[in-house]
Structure formats: structure tokens, C-alpha cells
Fold:
Amino acid sequence: MTAATATEWETVIGLEVHTELCTATKLFCGCANNFGDQPNTNVCPVCLGLPGSLPVLNRMAVEYAMRIGTALHCTVQSSLFHRKNYFYPDMPKDYQISQYDVPINADGWLALPDGRRVGIERAHIEEDTGKSTHVGESGRIHGADYSLVDYNRAGVPLVEIVGRPDLRSSEDARAYVDELRAILVATGASDGKMEEGSLRVDANVSVRRRGAPELGTRCEIKNMNSLRSLGRAIEYEAARQIAILEDGGTISQETRHWDETLGRTSTMRSKEEAYDYRYFPEPDLVPIAPSAEWVKAVADALPPMPADRRAAVAEAAGMAPDADPVVTVVRLDLDPLLNAAVAAGADGELAVKRLANEVAAGLEQASTLDPRAFAAVVGMESRSELTTAQARTVLKELLEHGGDPAAIAKAHGFEAMAAGALSGVIDQVIADNPGEWDRFAAGEDKVQGFLIGKIKAATGGNADLKEASALLRARRG
Ligand code: ADP
Ligand code: ZN
Ligand code: MG
Structure:
């Protein structure tokens, strides 16, 4: 595929994200919901699907699902459970209890950090299956020597979030999952750990000629377990489809498996249709009909979402909500430190910069960083009592050892230069280096570094170099 042909095609992506809920117990029984326990220790007749056992719905799972729906601007509504029938060894009942045509959350949206909205078709509750491990060279069921199954995961509550096909690139898809993960964690419903399988992403990918009104035929890709593999899988799949179409071929709708090592997708199964599953209402469960009060109580109790927090940080810093330092501060949960600094009178922009750089770099120590001490350092820098380089040094030491910022600054000999002192130093430097000054004055900018170096040396590093540059340039006239 040449670059020219790539620009004639548009990639269209819709993601289906499964998230495990952080409940203490499973969706329909009292077994523990714990990742990493000894296989087949958290099981009972209900989650093993033994005859005569009956499901009892976990109220907290419903509440978490409502939190997710609310955070994604969905309508939270009365809903039904269905049985989705199919055989697979890791699903002991031979059907999965899921929500089909009447999900608990419908029709919402998620805003990417740059403000673009991605539609959410639905976010419904369902139970997880057990986990199969295929032992053998292939690592997959085909060609396995034997397979092991762990039912600890069978019956763990999931919410499946079905996004609309509004994403247009692998970067979009990654940004969407990143934001969704942050929202899920903020609601408290999920730990968002992709590497432990508590967040699993299936990608539907199609391509079409730019400007074409209809969507192309899609393939669904499974088995990506990091944002990086999600991006790679989408890129590979789009290129594969474009090559087929440019060759005059057609795309057949199917589920494809992403192979991380080979870096490609391959056919898993052709698309199954809903009627293959013979969905029917689950006769052992009544509809979920949350009261208006419950829906409101859940909405009222939601903490601020990442987008709200970015807006607040952006406002305090006078930056755009998708500026890198703003995104970093919220991603790393450093906004309480910003608020403390601003409340103590420090400059918001400086505080955000110090948090996104020095504090982010020493993140292990950030939790022990005293907000008042942080505010004090940024305050000293705001008032030009410390230069940027000095503030960084003090902050680094504060992160490593704690202490009093003023005392640290003093110990380093960082003394505030009296107002006007810098001007005198500059007079001296000009007098001592007349040749260099004449060249600088005549417009030779590269000499500035030399003169600044002299100023720095003359002040023992205590000068605000930004101010020194400004003064030098002003002298030039
Ligand atoms: P199904 O009922 O077969 O599961 P849906 O219409 O519910 O199909 O779509 C499932 C997922 O596929 C959604 O996330 C949706 O955004 C995505 N999707 C649908 N059509 C396309 C397409 N042509 N290209 C890419 N993604 C698509
Ligand atoms: Zn159980
Ligand atoms: Mg669907």
C-alpha cells in the first residue's frame, strides 16, 4: 500500500469493551470475585451451573453498572436478563446470562480529551465465563495437547460497553480506551487493569473510500491485551482490508484473532448471528427496575470525572484541557497538590508545570509530598525568589527527603537577589566584556549565551536567567 492509496481510504472503528466489576462477590452467587486465587476454589453450584441452582442478583453490580451508565451520559432504564445459548467448555451452564434487547444503560457518549464525542450504543450487564488455558505449542485451542479450565471467573460481573463506529484511527481508538478506563476507575466500578483482563477490548474495523456514504464490511478483532497491541492490530487489519479491496476482492464479515508475536490477525470464526444464540428471557430473574430515587442517588454520588478535573486544572493553569501537562496532572492524580498550591497563592501555570515534570518524575515519593511545602516552592518561584533551576533542585530534594523548602534553598545558597541587583551585575558584565557586548548589540544573537553564562557565574547561579535575557535585550535598544 502506498502513502497515496492510504489517504484515499478511511478506517472506521467501533469498540466493544468488557470491564469486570470490583464487587466482593460474583453476579449471581456469593462466591468471591478475586483475581489470581487458586484455580477452581471460588465456585459453587450456581456458578458451576449445577441443575436446580438459582441465580440471585448482586445489588452492588447493578449499582456499579448504573454508575458507569451515568458517567457515560446514558439513559439508565429498567432492563431484562436473557440467556445467550452456546456451548463452550469454560461456560458451565452452556448459556451466558446477559442483557439483550433491553440493556440497563442506553444511548450515551464519551468525550475524547480533545472534545470529540464518541457515541455509546449501550452498556449492559452480563456474567463472565471461566478461563481456559490451552496447553501446547500453539497456545490456542487448535493444536493444543490438552486444555485446563478455571471456573473462578465464571459468573464474575461484567459491564459491556458498546461504542458506536465513530473512531477513525488507531490513535482515536487508543485515546477512547484510555479515557474510558479513566472513567471506569473514577466511578469505582473497575480497577481498569488490562493486563489482568479486567478490561478487555474487541475492535470492529472496516475501511471505506474517503467520502463514501456507507460503512464498509467489518471484522471483529479479539485478543489484544494492551493499548499498544490494540493500535497495532487496527493498523494491520485496516491495511489488510485495503489490500484486498484494491485487488478487487471483498471483505467477509468474521471474527479474527490478533497474534501479538506475528503481528497479524487471522480468521477465528465467521460471524455468528443473534438467532444462532436463541436468546430468550431468563426465567429465573425478574426485570431490574431501579427507582428514580436510586438512579438520582447514584448520579449525585459520582465523583468528578477525568474530563471535569482536566477542565478545572486547565482553568487554574490557563492552558487547554488537552495540553500535555494538564492531562498528566489528572492522569497521575496530582490535582489535589495543584489545588493546595493555588489556595496558598502560588501561580497555577507554574504549579502545573512543576507537577507534570519534577513531581511526575518522582511519582513514588509524590504521595509523601507535603502540599504546603509544594505550595511554598512554587510560591517562591512565582515571586522570583527562586529561579526555575533552583526551584527544580529544591523540589527534587523535597521529594526525596522532605523538609522545609526555605531551609533547603538556604542550604544550597539560593538567595533571592534584591530587586535591581541584577541590573548592576549586567552593567559589570558588559563593562568586562566590551567586544562580546558590541557584537550582541549589533544584533549577533548567538553571543547572548556567552553573556548569560557570565551573568550566571557572577551571581553564583542565583539570577533569574529569563529575566537576565530580557534585561540584556532591553539594553540593546
Ligand atoms: P452486532 O449486533 O453484530 O454485534 P452491532 O451493530 O451491535 O453488531 O455492532 C457491534 C460493534 O461493531 C459496535 O461497537 C459498532 O460500533 C461496531 N460496528 C458496527 N458496524 C461497523 C463498521 N461498519 N465498521 C466498524 N465498526 C462497526
Ligand atoms: Zn458461585
Ligand atoms: Mg452488538
